[in-house]
Amino acid sequence: QVDVAAMVQLFGYVDVTDTAFIVAVLSIAFNPFFWNVVARWEHKTQVFSQVLGSPHAACYCLGTVILLLNCVRSHCFTEAMKSQPKLEGWDCHWTYYSGLAISAVGTLFVISSFLALGFTGTFLGDYFGILMEEKVTSFPFSILDNPMYWGSTAIYLGWSLMHASPAGLLLTAVVAISYTIAVLYEG
Question: What is the DSSP-derived secondary structure letter of residue 60?
């Protein structure tokens, strides 16, 4: 039997009807939906490659849009945390530095994934016909599948802990769920 008292207390700090929170949830859910729909559409039609003159130009354009959308998502996430109360018991050095460590590990996974895959490998180049010569199995792919997704999730988790934010923790769960759905869709 699960004791839900801690969960009830935690979510008592979160106003899910707050506009900033709703916008954050929508931006989190929109990003993987957007890039998967656009990439699959390109794979079927090659419209972006034709309009932009090459698959590489189209992939770089989509990658730039994805990066900009990630900036918007991070901003919305931060604004949602700022609009909600902190959990006083977590507003301490131990939680802050734990969150910083988790964010650092997440950043390591994201950056090392990008370095292993390159820009076109990271930003769905395979949907544009830009294929890698072989599957990447080096770090961080030797440690876990989809390290960029889980690294990004860890960054948000750490950010939430650093801000002692129950809203941030709930939004981090939304990030994890969105990436889990994306992985199932992409697989």
Answer: H
- Answer whether 166's CB lies under 8 Å from 10's CB: yes
User: Within 13 Å and on the Cβ side, how many CA atoms surround 153?
Assistant: 16
- CA separation for the pair 84, 167 (Å, rounded): 7
Q: How many helices (H) and strands (E) does the chain have?
A: 7, 0
Cα–Cα distance between 148 and 182 in angstroms, integer?
Answer: 12
- Cβ-based neighbours of 77, under 8 Å, separated by 6 or more: 24, 27, 28, 156, 159, 168, 171
* Nearest partner of 152 among 167, 174, 136, judged by Cα: 174
pTM, two decimal places? 0.89
User: What single letter denotes the amino acid at residue 154?
Assistant: A
* Interval 118-177: pLDDT, tens: 999 999 999 999 988 888 999 999 999 999 999 999 999 999 999 999 999 999 999 999
